[in-house]
Design brief:
54% of the residues lie in helices and 12% in strands. It has 14 helices and seven strands. Helix 3 runs parallel beside helix 9 and helix 5 crosses helix 10.
Length: 292
């Protein structure tokens, strides 16, 4: 996700047309070019501590030169409102079913303890499907640990993109994104929730380690941390959240080379690392991708 080769890239934005992706202590960039296109791929983190420095000179240069900003899904106000209605549509348990029935006494006790500690309504969580309860818990935990959605990459760069008049585009609709979790088999949903409870009980150390590895451009450390997470999650969750989406996005990105212009694409860092990453899939398709 990052690393060096700074001086030539800093001379002027024209250098972006000929300069290899940066190698220095900032989040990684990958670059794809042809005769009339330049696409930068940036591994993002969606929720970050406001005081974490991550926007280095290479990211800033590449982003400033782009005419279009592409993210996983729309993060505008209207789209955010649709997420609430979609969560209600896909995240509620059927009448007569409760989360406590699905979890059993031991894990339900853990859920109640976590909700109490985070100031969440355990009764409301009990009416939610496991995937939505897990998201509510992990979001509340991240915020309590000092992370903020408005400090995340998409929020920060999205505001700049709108202010500078860049075109905006998205790889998925809000409904597609919601359904990556909502379409999981129930047992995998429950596994996802139990992993979330485990992570909350372990404390914020792992989250901080990932943020710091990402911000300093330590691809190897970040990939090792993510590999451990996906191994614990299992193949069904990994396929739903990562592999299947990566295939779709790699195809979309390859098609963009048929057009022209400069594009800056920001997707979750986990999608750009590993053997089944967007980067690996593009290279397997014969697309030359420069970068770490």
């Amino acid at each position: 996700m990052r690393i060096l080769s700074l001086l030539a890239c800093l001379i002027a934005s024209l250098a972006l047309a000929t300069c290899a992706p940066p190698r220095q202590s900032e989040p990684a960039l990958w670059r794809i070019t042809d005769q009339d296109s330049e696409i930068w791929l940036f591994g993002s983190v969606h929720v970050l501590p406001p005081d974490l420095a991550w926007r280095g000179p290479h990211v800033s240069e590449a982003f400033a030169a782009a005419e279009e900003f592409v993210t996983e899904t729309d993060t505008g106000d209207e789209a955010q409102q649709s997420f609430a209605s979609l969560a209600a549509r896909y995240g509620a348990l059927p009448p007569g079913r409760t989360l406590s029935q699905l979890l059993g006494d031991s894990d339900q006790g853990r859920l109640i303890d976590a909700a109490r500690e985070l100031g969440l309504d355990a009764g409301a969580l009990n009416r939610q499907r496991p995937w939505l309860a897990a998201l509510q818990l992990s979001t509340a935990y991240a915020i309590r640990a000092g992370h903020r959605p408005e400090a995340g990459v998409e929020a920060v760069l999205g505001a700049d993109a709108r202010a500078s008049g860049k075109r905006l585009w998205f790889l998925e609709t809000p409904e597609q994104q919601i359904r990556t979790l909502a379409d999981l088999p129930e047992q995998d949903e429950l596994h996802f929730l139990r992993l979330t409870l485990r992570d909350l009980e372990r404390g914020a150390g792992a989250m901080s380690a990932m943020d710091e590895a990402w911000a300093r451009g330590d691809v190897a450390t970040l990939e090792a941390l993510l590999d451990a997470e996906w191994e614990a999650a299992g193949p069904t969750i990994h396929a739903a959240l990562i592999t299947n989406r990566n295939r779709d996005w790699a195809e979309q990105i390859e098609r963009r080379l048929d057009g022209s212009g400069r594009v800056f694409i920001a997707v979750g860092a986990a999608h750009l690392l590993g053997d089944d990453s967007v980067i690996a899939l593009l290279r397997a398709r014969g697309v030359a991708v420069e970068g770490p």
